[in-house]
Amino acid sequence: MSAATGARTPAADGAGADGRSKGLGSGRVGLLGSVVIGVSTIAPAYTLTGALGPTASAVGDHLPAIFLVGFVPMLLVAVGYRALNSAMPDSGTTFTWSSRAFGPWIGWMGGWGLLAATILVLSNLAGIAVDFLYLMLAQLTGRDSLADLAANVPVNVTTCLVFMALACWVSYRGLEATKVVQYVLVTFQLLVLAWFCVAAFTQVADGSAPAALALRAEWFDPFGVDSFSAFAAGVSLSVFIYWGWDVVLTMNEETQGSRTTPGRAALATIALIVVLYLAVALAVLTFSGTGEEGLGLGNADIQENIFAALAGPVMGPAAVLMSLAVLASSAASLQSTFISPARTLLAMGHYGALPPRFARIVPRFQSPGYATVVAGVIASVFYAVMRVLSEDVLWDTITALGMMVCFYYGVTALACVWYFRGTWRGDLRSFLTTGLAPGIGGVLLLVFFVQTAVDSTDQSYGSGSQLFGIGLVFLLGIGVLALGVLVMLAQRLRRPAFFRGQTLPRERGTTVPTTAPRATAPGGTTEGADQ
Predict the structure, then answer these.
(1) pLDDT digits (tens, 9 = 90+) for 453-462
(2) Which of 117, 139, 256, 393 could form a disulfide bond with 320, CB atoms 3.0-4.6 angstroms apart?
(3) Is residue 252 part of a domain?
(4) Can you give the pTM of this predicted structure?
(5) Residue partners of 191: CB distance under 8 A and separation at least 6
(6) How far apart are CA 188 and CA 195, in angstroms?
(7) What is the separation of C-alpha 264 from the centre of its chain, rounded to a whole number of angstroms?
């Protein structure tokens, strides 16, 4: 392979960007399965109950506008992801692609950003699951005291660790086990969210809702937000609610049609989610409004867990289904989210950026067993420590997560621009899909990252938690990135070959593959729909 030109023989399905298999099982998931796992990782029920409040506190009744604005960079970045995946499908995604485009140092930090985001969200998912488990038990038994168990730190942390261990176990068993679990859990949460929307709009229509507001055009105007800081904070949070669709790319070596299916699945997942989010946002706004008392979204007492407060008034006796849906959503996403960090760690071990034990595959399940367990242990320890330090850990990790996502999505989008820069001459389509679209998306996300980082130094930012006079959100977001720099320097001393560009050399793309030859999946079947 020529590092100067990027010319190489296309890797077969199940092989990485270097043409060598990492040992993952190829052809395990098709288009439908990929979309289901993508939706599962985004976890709409969990995401909305945790993010509607913080986002409303930042932008008020401009929720629909911010959701749409957050969707735009996601779509633009997804176009870049699709082009990169077509050129070099690899489970390392951000790490591999950024290393190919910018070199090992930026590639390593891009991979670290993805790992940091997923570790943060794993802890947050487990925390939400704990809250709704005890709320559901209280609703089912009629014993309100059971819901208070979630506030008991030892009980909370112990329950969280049980959830984490179960999710890790399913992920350890590979994508076949993951896919079966996700079909059931994703279908259930989507049905309950649809029920919630219909019930809310029905009460708004008959005037029985607390606010009963008519739809307003200004809700869709992003320029109505009070300040750019509030706008950036809102977008960072809205980026968080879309985050997770890129899991379908990290499965590319295990997907049927690894060069084309993951990109299609990413775009389909984002389109489905934006429609769902707008429906829920409008249902909540028209039902509750943004007042600071009662069920208003501006009430600080309910902002951390919106569905816990609204499910009863909206759905009546069926409110327990929402508790079960958020619990299922959290548990499903907790499990499927393990896919990204495990396969990123696998790729980093495969290319020599981390110790080779991270590249170990479980022969029986063809899954990255060691990397999966490490991700679970780190997330568990992080949650336990954060839960002791801050009662508002859920809010703060959501805000910090938005920063991490803006960082590594932005780096990946710009990697697409730089990698394909030599393909644009005389090719307008190539310029639009690998230059303009991901370039705009990447720059926007990095601007939001910088603005949120600056604002989060304020002690009052997020939940108001602080250490040493600095906002906890800033310490979480920037502190984790700084830790990544230290770990990277340590790895440079131990594994110089990667940092010299010997194991994953820089390239310059010369073509943008749009189609791929149909290949034969294991067992002699032609790749296509889920088996």
Answers:
(1) 888 887 777 6
(2) 139
(3) yes
(4) 0.81
(5) none
(6) 11
(7) 17
